[in-house]
Amino acid sequence: MKKLMVALSVAALASGCSTYDPYTGEQETSKTAIGAGIGAGVGVLAAYLDNRDEKDVKKRNQRILASAAGGAAIGGGIGFYMDAQEAKLRKQLRGTGVRVERDGDNVNLIMPGNITFASGSSAVASSFYEVLNSVALVIKEYDRTLVVVAGHTDSDGSESTNQRLSEQRASSVSAYLKSRGIKSVRLETVGFGERSPIASNATASGKELNRRVEITLVPVSQ
After folding, report:
1. pTM across the whole model
2. Contacting residues for 28 by C-beta, under 8 A, at least 6 apart
3. What does the pLDDT look like over 96-133, one tens digit per residue?
4. Above 80 in pLDDT, residue 152?
5. In what order do the strands lie in the sheet with 99-103?
6. What does the H/E/C string look like for 21-78?
7. pLDDT beyond 60 at 28
């Protein structure tokens, strides 16, 4: 039990590692460290349950500590991979109007409709090609991700019209990425219509935020 507590302490320390962000002045916990900590914790508990009947205490403890190390490597590996991809996307998309957000191991790109498409159109605006080219370059480099392209609208117009427009806009972005070399097997396209607002549709500014395409990059376990 003492060795188990030591291993769990190591996992907690791994997940608690943080770095100083000079832009915000705050300490930020690395996603890699979080992944490593979670992986280590899962490895410890799984090994403890599998080996709790082992009579050789030394052998049991060695297996538990080995599982902690292995779990940390797996969890940290995914986190590191997505950390690197996120950093490159932030660099490429700075000043473009596209927001880069992190949700666990997923990386989300939020593309406002007013810069991605011409008004009332589902065709990608030519002025946005350069931005999508930058996105495609990074997605091609980090090819161990599923690329989910989701279209969204505001609540103006009929629900069926909005659903169709969201699907068409998501398909346009997906098709453009495919034309830039992203394999179709990695692409998943979906339209949510007006069903997933991120702001109030009672105001013009809220409607503008809701008209968007989101690209979510989901790591694929090897």
Report:
1. 0.68
2. 18, 19, 20, 21
3. 999 999 999 999 999 999 999 987 789 999 999 999 99
4. yes
5. 99-103, 106-112, 212-219, 145-152, 187-191
6. ECCCCEEEECHHHHHHHHHHHHHHHHHHHHHCCCCCHHHHHHHHHHHHHHHHHHHHHH
7. no
Q: Which element (helix H / strand E) includes 18? A: strand 18-21
User: Per the structure block, which two tokens stand in for 4?
Assistant: 């188990």
Contact 18, 30 (CB under 8 A): yes
Q: Which residues of 158-179 are buried (b: 16+ CB within 10 A; e: fewer)?
A: eeeebbbbbbebbbbbbebbee
Read off the tokens for 19.
């770095």
Cα–Cα distance for residue pair 35/196, rounded to 1 Å: 29
Which domains, ranges and CATH numbers included, belong to the chain?
2-79 (no CATH), 95-219 (3.30.1330.60)
| 219 and 76 Cβ atoms separated by less than 8 Å | no
